[in-house]
Write a structure and sequence with these properties.
Shape: globular
Radius of gyration: 21 Å
Number of helices: 13
Distance between the termini: 47 Å
Oligomer: single chain
CATH architecture of the largest domain: Alpha-Beta Complex
Strand content: 15-25%
Protein name: Aminoglycoside phosphotransferase domain-containing protein
Order of helices and strands: HEEEEEHEEEHHHHHHEEEHEHHHH
InterPro entries: Cell-binding_unc_protein, Kinase-like_dom_sf
Number of domains: 2
Number of strands: 12
Helix content: 40-55%
Largest sheet: 8 strands, mixed
CATH topology of the largest domain: Aminoglycoside 3'-phosphotransferase, Chain: A, domain 2
Length: 333
């Protein structure tokens, strides 16, 4: 589907015989239609270096995979449904007409309970963090172990891809900001080589598991029983990671919001249920993984700024990118 068709579906389409009458939220790789009771996630027809949604069958398969993977820990995922067009009308679900695409149907949750929104309003309590730590630890304990050798070259490339935005960063933010990228890459290469044996040992010991892969506050709802959603389905290697890398993302995110206290509370309570720090050296690895997550977030926001034609929006992306880049630099001390 194209953007204009998704907007038509949201405004005029039907689901279970009722008007959808929803709004559309767009990300880099999907559209989400939010109706009164349901959310419908539709994959954009894109092909990138790390995912392929370029044809209808691939989008269907990824929808089905998203349903299965997220159902491991979330009850909001309901089913994968066809999107049909018949006699100038849009319908989600079974019926007449050509299948134009597929949608993952979910229960709609309250935006006010989304963790990132609650953090902005200083509404997240220690009790919320403890509940979340318990839910995550229970999921992680059951997650399938992935025993694949640690790949030093791949690890270096993952971090060093930040260099791809260096020219843009220098043009927009100045030489000093761009030089933070240079020194960070040198630091990362040295760190990976120095701690190579420990990375290899953790991989051999089964600390890499089939997890969520994108565990930040925007993918969590803080009800009494926390709800996690939107794991990575399109690339197994992004999801099959060390536990330290998984929880490092959430801790880094909390620290970016200025809530190091919540990060510490999460780590402390999580570790009581599942201690993934076997050696003292593991705390250094954890810090590295937080830096890597800050690296990836900085790159994403710089790329968003690079492609944004609206000056106000571009500025917001640049400010977010710089906050993550400076955070990455702080982790190196």
């Amino acid at each position: 589907m194209e953007r204009i068709e998704v907007n038509e579906l949201a405004k005029t389409g039907l689901f279970q015989g009722n008007p959808i009458d929803g709004g559309v939220v767009e990300t880099n790789i999907s559209w989400v239609i939010l109706s009164k009771l349901f959310a419908f996630k539709i994959k954009r027809p894109v092909k990138l270096s790390f995912l392929d949604y370029s044809d209808l069958q691939k989008r269907k398969q990824n929808c089905e995979r998203e349903l299965v993977l997220n159902s491991r820990y979330s009850s909001i995922y309901l089913e994968v449904l066809p999107i049909r067009y018949f006699e100038n009308s849009w319908v989600i679900g079974e019926g007449q007409g050509k299948i134009k695409d597929y949608a993952v149907c979910m229960k709609k949750l309250r935006n006010s309970k989304k963790m990132d929104e609650m953090l902005k309003k200083d509404l997240v309590q220690y009790s919320d963090i403890r509940n979340l730590a318990t839910v995550l630890a229970n999921f992680h304990k059951k997650a399938e172990k992935v025993r694949k050798p640690f790949d030093l070259g791949q690890a270096k490339n993952t971090f060093n891809d930040l260099e791809s935005v260096r020219k843009f960063v220098q043009e927009e933010c100045g030489v000093q900001t761009a030089q933070k990228i240079d020194s960070s890459i040198v630091w990362s290469n040295d760190f990976l080589e120095k701690h190579l044996q420990r990375f290899e040992k953790r991989a051999a010991d089964g600390w890499a598991r089939d997890l969520h892969g994108d565990l930040h506050s925007g993918n969590i709802f803080l009800y009494k029983d926390p709800i996690i959603f939107d794991c990575i389905e399109f690339n197994d290697s992004f999801r099959q990671i060390d536990l330290l890398y998984e929880i490092g993302f959430l801790c880094m995110d909390l620290e970016n919001f200025g809530r190091a206290d919540l990060s510490e509370e999460f780590l402390s309570f999580y570790s009581k249920s599942l201690n993934c720090f076997e050696e003292n050296e593991d705390m250094e690895l954890f810090k590295y993984f937080k830096a890597l997550r800050a690296n990836v977030r900085a790159k994403v926001y710089f790329l968003n700024a690079q492609s944004d034609i609206d000056p106000i929006s571009k500025n917001k992306h640049l400010e977010m990118a710089k906050s993550y880049l400076y955070q990455l630099f702080d982790y190196q001390s």
